[in-house]
Specification:
19% helix, 38% strand, 9 strands, single chain, five-stranded antiparallel beta sheet, 146 residues, globular, 2 domains
Length: 146
């Protein structure tokens, strides 16, 4: 085992990081939760009729830092946001996503959940909402269900 660790360690910083994790026995390694969501008008509250659809991938680490992206098709989104709210309910805005290209929105690098918001995320009480000129209250919604 030691000789294989030496070979990994010789591989540079990635090797040193792997050795550090092996030596620590994995202790202190923060876990992140990644959620995928299907976005549809039928998930809106109240539901909307639209041919548009989309998907989201959101990751929240143990410290509440958020990353992710939303892709929408068939609509010209005017804004995309992460809201607090259980399935079937609407709630306050937590994070505004930034548009990177038509139909592609990303979570800004400074996005952070409070401890309470993180617990609500883990309980499935956050959702993505894609807004458009046609449906300013929301055209697509996807619940973030870990």
């Amino acid at each position: 085992m030691r000789s294989s660790l030496r070979r990994v360690a010789a591989g540079g910083s990635l090797g040193r990081m792997a050795v550090a994790v092996l030596r620590a026995g994995g202790e202190g390694v923060a876990m992140a939760t990644t959620v995928r969501a299907v976005l549809a008008g039928s998930h809106e509250v109240p539901p909307v009729v639209t041919a548009a659809h989309g998907s989201a991938v959101v990751t929240v680490d143990a410290g509440g830092r958020v990353s992710g992206r939303v892709i929408s098709h068939g609509t010209k989104a005017t804004m995309v946001r992460i809201h607090e709210g259980a399935e079937g309910t609407n709630g306050p805005i937590l994070i505004w996503l930034k548009q990177r290209a038509p139909g592609l929105w990303v979570v800004p690098p400074e996005a952070q959940l409070t401890a309470l918001q993180h617990r609500r995320f883990l309980a499935g009480e956050l959702y993505i909402n894609v807004h458009s000129a046609r449906h300013p209250a929301g055209e697509l919604r996807g619940q973030l269900l870990p």
